[in-house]
Amino acid sequence: MSMAALLFGFAMVDNILLLFISVYNIITLSDLEIDIINVRQACSKLNQTFLPEVALHVILTVLFIINNNWFLFIFNILLDFWFVYKYFKRQPGQLGVYDPLELNNRRSIKANMRVNNLYLLNIDFICFSTIFIGFSYSFNILSHVLLSLSLFVNPRVDLNTVQLTNTKQITFCNACTISIQTKTILLMSIALCLLFK
């Protein structure tokens, strides 16, 4: 097992935890909005999840810089800067990032839910998708998935003429060669367009 596969496996677990934290924060703010819990309980719950979320993002950032994954490093360092900004933006004397007096306003609840959590949930999902593609690519799973997708799109191809070479390319009857990375970029762009539609 390669180092990249271990890194992407750990990053997938880490990112799943980040997705759970984002969903938990959205549920907490939704409960506050419909008055199931009071403001102090909501701030207590939200402040308890802030440090683990920051720690998980910092761990991902350090692992990506060690393994020379520059795109994922830049993606995560921007999120780390957002958390630093959010921490230093709080009022002096405030114990946590979330303050009961600030969250008491309904507009503030919706703004926190929209900006801090729904956007972070989308960013974590995009990061998870990218990490999953890197993980499956490191295990050469993606080439088999893309081969089956290509056969689904072009059903007239004879299975005996389809060859999967060691150069990570799919060859159809020696007529056209499609790179796995090109298909990966195409699938990611389609997924991003559908996500932000």
TrEMBL record:
Subcellular location, principal: membrane
Entry's Gene Ontology BP terms: vesicle-mediated transport
Record field: transmembrane: 7-27, 54-85, 118-139, 178-196
Protein name, per record: Cornichon
Alphabetical list of Pfam families matching this protein: Cornichon
One of the record's GO cellular component terms: membrane
Localization of this protein: Membrane
Keyword annotations of the record: Membrane, Transmembrane, Transmembrane helix
